[in-house]
Amino acid sequence: MGCLSGIVNFILYVVNVVFLIVGILLIVLGSIMLADINRFAGMSEVEHTNTIPICITVIGALIFVVSFFGCYGLFRQSACMTGAYTSMIFVLFILQLVLTCWVFVNRTAFLNDMRSLVTSLWNTHDSEAFGVLEVTFNCCGNTGYANYGNQTVPGTCCGFANRQTSCSSQIYETKPGCNDKFEEFWYDNMDIIRWSGLGIVLFELLVFIFAGALTNCMRRENAGRQVSA
Q1: C-alpha span between 118 and 129 (Å, rounded)
Q2: Spatial CA neighbour of 182 closest among 126, 138, 128
Q3: Is pTM, for the whole model, over 0.85?
Q4: What is the 3-state secondary structure of 119-186?
Q5: Res 140: pLDDT
Q6: Mean pLDDT value of segment 120-126
Q7: Helix, strand, coil % over all residues of the chain, rounded to 5
Q8: Are the CB atoms for 49 and 12 separated by under 8 Å?
Q9: What span, in angstroms and rounded, lies between the C-alpha atoms of 172 and 144?
Q10: In contact, 27 and 57? CB cutoff 8 Å
Q11: Burial class of residue 42 (count of CB atoms within 10 Å of its CB; 0-12, 13-18, 19+)
């Protein structure tokens, strides 16, 4: 293998190690998103808001498997395995591109679903579940503390786990509604997902080009050895 091919081989090996880490991070991120959404299990809105986290988790698992396959193929210097790896990278590139475009297009609809989710939880009058939301996101009520009307504002609006704990008006009056806080949380996450996804797509395109070039180099070397023999 020539000097240039050796450099490309080393770079791809390092890139695949990075992809292994990226795959693990995507699996973790998707799992966290699913865990947050599944706190509201039983609501109809959950069924289709689960789609994006599940896709992120699946893509992460695919990236992990393909990267592991690529590391092994490059280590063994196998043209067949490296070629298969190149094909898988191309398929992964297409899937990642579709998912990224879908996240860009469906962002507003997804955020609206998140707001509806909080409103639905408020309307079920499940005080314990909503209390968890208030403590987790440092918020109070659906759109604000005024939602409690003549009722006593619970301790969860002041960050206490026990809803019966007295909560000072100086604290809960400064807290935003959980609807806005929950949407803001997912708004920030969507930005991370969108731009990270776009970066990964461009990265995968470069890997596909380099892997294809390396595969052709390996095949020419194998053909040269067969002729020599």
Answers
A1: 10
A2: 138
A3: no
A4: HHHHHCCCHHHHHHHHHHHCCCCCCCHHHHCCCCCCHHHHCCCCCCCCCCHHHHCCCCCHHHHHHHHH
A5: 92
A6: 82
A7: 80, 0, 20
A8: no
A9: 9
A10: yes
A11: exposed
5: CB partners within 8 A, 6+ apart? 214, 217, 218
What is residue 39's DSSP assignment? G
Calpha distance 225→61 (Å, rounded): 37
Cα–Cα distance, 147 to 74 (Å, whole number):
61
* Cβ atoms of residues 134 and 178 within 8 Å: yes
Q: Which two tokens stand for residue 186?
A: 């997912």
d(C-alpha 182, C-alpha 114), whole Å: 7
Number of CB atoms found within 10 A of residue 181's CB: 18
**What value does the mean pLDDT take over residues 79-105?**
83
What pLDDT sits at residue 139?
92
Contact assessment for residue 66 and residue 89, using Cβ atoms and an 8 Å cutoff: yes
**Cα–Cα distance between 113 and 115 in angstroms, integer?**
5
